[in-house]
């Protein structure tokens, strides 16, 4: 993606851990590790209505489509495009005859675009505002990382966030949790059990943990 000043570091390293582009890639990989285990039967599983824009009995297939749509948009977002400029993906059949393979292909393209590099001054133009790339990657990572856990929990699939991903989300997301909570991104925080492990403490901090 050509940009004034050339390509630079993909994300900004705010602390000793991973930068936000690395956090995005780790969160996206975690989500893919869950979605790749969806069978045709699991794709028909009902999901909570608040997970989907589909108003009539949304299923896991609707969630898979939404994530395929998000992946399709990543190269465009990195290039400074926005839905306000037109949406080339909304009306496409993004899942086709093999939904998982179709999602994986879009994920591969998104991953390659991120790894190719983003100019340090790049802005991500989301529907709710424009953000510097470093902050934008943290936004993109948040949904993916916690959706990976939520989907696995709903479907009783064995899954744990990696220690590196837990550290990255604690570094870049948890400090902003109260602000994002005011926007309706996170539910109220939960008091973590006394013997909670790092994953449980993270999930409690953003209000997602369920016993």
Describe the structure.
- The chain is mostly helical and 211 residues long.
- It has a domain of 122 residues.
- The chain is 49% helix and 4% strand.
- A two-stranded antiparallel ribbon has the order 1-2.
- The protein is globular and about 50 Å long.
- The N terminus is likely disordered.
Topology:
Layout (H helix, E strand, L loop, with lengths): L19 H16 L4 H4 L16 H19 L20 H18 L6 E4 L2 E4 H23 L7 H10 L4 H6 L15 H8 L6
Antiparallel strand pairs: 1-2
Helix pairs in contact: 1-4, 1-5, 1-6, 3-4
Briefly characterize the structure:
This protein has helices at residues 20-35, 40-43, 60-78, 99-116, 133-155, 163-172, 177-182, 198-205, and strands spanning 123-126, 129-132.
Identify the overall geometry.
globular
The count of DSSP E runs of length 2 or more, i.e. the number of strands, is 2
What structural class is derived from the secondary structure elements?
mainly alpha
Helix content class: 40-55%
- What is Rg? 17 Å
Keywords, please?
globular; about 210 residues; 8 helices; two-stranded antiparallel sheet; mainly alpha; single chain; about 50% helix; disordered N terminus
């Amino acid at each position: 993606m050509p940009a004034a000043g050339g390509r630079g570091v993909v994300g900004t390293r705010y602390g000793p851990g991973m930068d936000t582009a690395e956090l995005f890639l780790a969160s996206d990989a975690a989500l893919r590790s869950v979605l790749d285990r969806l069978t045709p039967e699991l794709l028909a599983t009902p999901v909570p209505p608040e997970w989907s824009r589909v108003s009539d009995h949304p299923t896991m297939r609707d969630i898979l489509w939404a994530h395929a749509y998000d992946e399709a948009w990543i190269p465009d977002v990195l290039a400074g495009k926005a839905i306000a400029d037109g949406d080339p993906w909304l009306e496409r059949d993004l899942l086709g005859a093999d939904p998982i393979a179709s999602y994986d292909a879009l994920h591969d393209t998104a991953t390659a675009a991120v790894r190719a590099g983003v100019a340090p001054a790049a802005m991500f133009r989301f529907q709710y505002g424009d953000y510097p790339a470093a902050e934008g990657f943290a936004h993109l990572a948040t949904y993916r990382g916690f959706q990976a856990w939520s989907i696995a929990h709903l479907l009783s699939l064995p899954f744990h966030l990696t220690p590196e991903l837990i550290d990255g989300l604690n570094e870049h997301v948890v400090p902003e949790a109260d602000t994002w909570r005011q926007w309706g991104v996170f539910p109220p925080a939960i008091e973590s059990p006394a013997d909670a492990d790092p994953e449980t403490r993270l999930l409690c901090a953003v209000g997602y943990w369920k016993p």
